[in-house]
Amino acid sequence: MVKPFMPQLVYFEPKALDYPLGQELYKKFQAKDIEIRYTTSHNQVRNLPGENDFQRYRIAKSTLVVGLRKTLKFDTSKPSAEYAIPFATGCMGHCHYCYLQTTMGSKPYIRTYVNVEEILESAHQYMEERAPEITRFEASCTSDIVGIDHLTHTLKRAIEYFGNTSLGRLRFVTKFNNVDHLLDAKHNGRTRFRFSMNADYVIKYFEPGTSRLHERIEAAGKVARAGYPLGFIIAPIYLFEGWQEGYKQLFERLSTELADEAKDGVTFELIQHRFTKPAKKVIQKNYPMTKLELDEEKRRYKWGKYGIGKYIYPKEEETEMKETLFEYIHTYFPKGKIEYFT
């Protein structure tokens, strides 16, 4: 069992203390005797402890930076939403395949932003611009927000904010099971609560520092009973010896845990494992003992936007993977909805 995240080291931007949440976090960490330092900007944290890259990376992943989100212009977030809403950056999990390793590069520490009302005001403006269309906001493009929300309650505030709007919808995904404080949030059905799920093998070998499969399944049951629209991201779909049986057991166990009404309208997003050349380098540096298969010879190359292509499974394996998982979903979740496979 993974304990709820508690940083070993915390940095504050001075201006963060001008906000109630900044003050609250400061008092919380002071009371717990956690080392507090200051930084001019959440992008400029330097001199992290550690004698080598391996140590520094691990210490950074247990470091929290409390700052302000200065850019209130949201990125677009296809295919799951219109916009990414930035409450946090970074993650305390150690998933070997994670793309944040490349996008965050030398800044793998976790950042939480305390100017929550300003971020929500920005979301309001985006909704106004798109009215009368519904606008969906994705809160987990660059973080696992649930992983730190027991400390900040920012996500809870956002869930209740969107619960009060008519044109806004919130969505996020997590690998953590510390959801209890979110169960009584007044969501009004406007937040889709998604869990990242995988075969037990993948979680066991490639997702250290995250909740185990049985814990996520149990948390999904709680969330469903709290009336949230529910979704599952099955990612990365990874071919290992016995993968068909591994994924079958996943859907069987999910189906057993969830009541029939919770299965009605549950969404599935399916993403096959992929890697880029730069990502492979970083993964092998951060997790030198990984069993993750990163052999270009066994993959096909798919050109990406921005000129960086990725290695995905060959067409034949991709087809078998897609057909197998679609069949499991139709069998165990006949009223579920597959949003995309990529």
Concise description?
With 342 residues, this protein is α/β, with parallel strands linked by helices. Helix content is 36%, strand content 19%. GO terms for molecular function: 4 iron, 4 sulfur cluster binding; DNA binding; DNA photolyase activity; metal ion binding; S-adenosyl-L-methionine binding.
What does this structure look like?
There is one protein chain. With 342 residues, this protein is α/β, with parallel strands linked by helices. The protein is built from twelve helices and 14 strands. The strands form three sheets. Strands 4-7-8-9-10-11-14 form a seven-stranded parallel β-sheet, covered by helices on one side. It has a five-stranded mixed β-sheet with strand order 2-1-3-6-5, with helices on one face. It has a two-stranded antiparallel ribbon with strand order 12-13. Helix 8 (213-225) runs parallel beside helix 9 and helix 9 runs parallel beside helix 12. The chain is globular, with a radius of gyration of 20 Å. The model has no long low-confidence stretch (mean pLDDT 95). Pfam families: SPL.
Number of strands: 14
**Spatial strand arrangement across the major sheet:** 4-7-8-9-10-11-14
Q: Per the principal axes of the C-alpha atoms, what is the gross shape?
A: globular
Distance between the termini: 31 Å
**Uncertain ranges:** none
Structural class: alpha/beta
Contiguous helical run count: 12
Describe the sheet with the most strands. 7 strands, parallel
Strand content: 15-25%
The residue-averaged pLDDT reads 95
Helix % is: 25-40%
Question: If you compute it from the alpha carbons, what radius of gyration comes out, rounded to the nearest whole angstrom?
Answer: 20 Å
Order of helices and strands: EHEHEEEHEHEHHEEHHEHHEHEEHE
GO molecular function, one term: 4 iron, 4 sulfur cluster binding
Function: Involved in repair of UV radiation-induced DNA damage during spore germination. Can repair thymine dimer 5-thyminyl-5,6-dihydrothymine (known as spore photoproduct (SP)) by in situ monomerization of SP to two thymines.
Keywords: 4Fe-4S, DNA damage, DNA repair, DNA-binding, Iron, Iron-sulfur, Lyase, Metal-binding, S-adenosyl-L-methionine, Sporulation
Protein name: Spore photoproduct lyase
